[in-house]
Amino acid sequence: MKLMKPFGKQFNLTTGVIDGADNHWTRYLKEMRGMYQDREVLNEIMNSDNPLIYEVYEVSVPEEAGQLIQCTSIIYPGKIGKEYYMTKGHYHKKKSCAEVYLCFSGQGYVLLQTEDGECETVEMKKEAFVYVPPYWAHRTINVGKEPLVFTGVYPAEAGHNYGSIEKVGFAKIIVEEQGKPVIKRNPNFKVK
Ligand code: PAN
Ligand code: ZN
Fold first, then answer.
1. Whose alpha carbon is nearest atom 11 of ligand 1?
2. Which ligand has its closest atom nearest to the C-alpha of 54?
3. Cα angle vertex 30, ends 166, 89, to 5°?
4. What total of structural domains would you count in the chain?
5. Is residue 5 in a domain?
6. String of b and e for 3-28 (b: at least 16 CB within 10 Å)?
7. Ligand 1 center to residue 89 CA distance, Å?
8. What pLDDT tens digit does each residue of the chain (192 aa) get?
9. CA 148, 71, 57 angle in degrees (round to 5)?
10. Ligand 1 site, CB within 6 A
11. Torsional sign, CA 21, 105, 140, 114
């Protein structure tokens, strides 16, 4: 059997950039416009701008059982109306795959949801370690004034399923009220 060679990468704890990352992707508002609640503000912003919401750097390995993918995510500070910038959110295609997040800087939450609509939030801040158990959809939200930077490690066979959670949405949203993040019920959540 031909074994894979060990390797190391450098990454910047403040910017989240991985030197020599194999993959890098960006998510602009246009690609996730259906996910924010304030349609009026959204359309107003989209008329003149298409802001960068987040980006991801990834070290790729063969997508097979036993391998682990490591990546960093950088969510920029900002809001669409009262709702903070966030990731699209997904289930793992292979739902039994868990993931761990380690936060380097910024302030935020991971919002997690099961297929039964059970919803949980876990705080993200410098040095927070968050466990995303198997079968939970997960989205990360930046509620601070700086970029929210974290690394994630997950099985290479996990894959991403964006469609299922996009169809129903998350049961909770995180909005700014009187200068503070507040976790609220999503008025557009479609109960099964
Ligand atoms: C993370 C996410 C990353 C971007 O690496 O992929 O934060 O979020 P979306 O994938 O929801 O756009 C992860 O959970 N990977 O499995
Ligand atoms: Zn994931």
1. 89
2. 1
3. 30
4. 1
5. no
6. eeeeeeeebeeeebbbeebeeeeebe
7. 7
8. 889 999 999 999 999 999 999 999 999 999 998 999 999 999 999 999 999 999 999 999 999 999 999 999 999 999 999 999 999 999 999 999 999 999 999 999 999 999 998 999 999 999 999 999 999 999 999 999 999 999 999 999 999 999 999 999 999 999 999 999 999 999 988 766
9. 80
10. 27, 56, 71, 73, 87-90, 99, 138, 140, 152, 154, 160
11. positive
Compute, in angstroms, the gap from residue 75 CA to the centroid of ligand 2.
15
Q: Where residue 29 sits, what CATH number does that domain have?
A: 2.60.120.10
Tokens of 68: 């682990």
User: In which domain, by residue range, is 145 found?
Assistant: 23-185
Q: How far is the CA of 160 from the centre of ligand 2 (A)?
A: 7
Tokens of 142: 């930046």
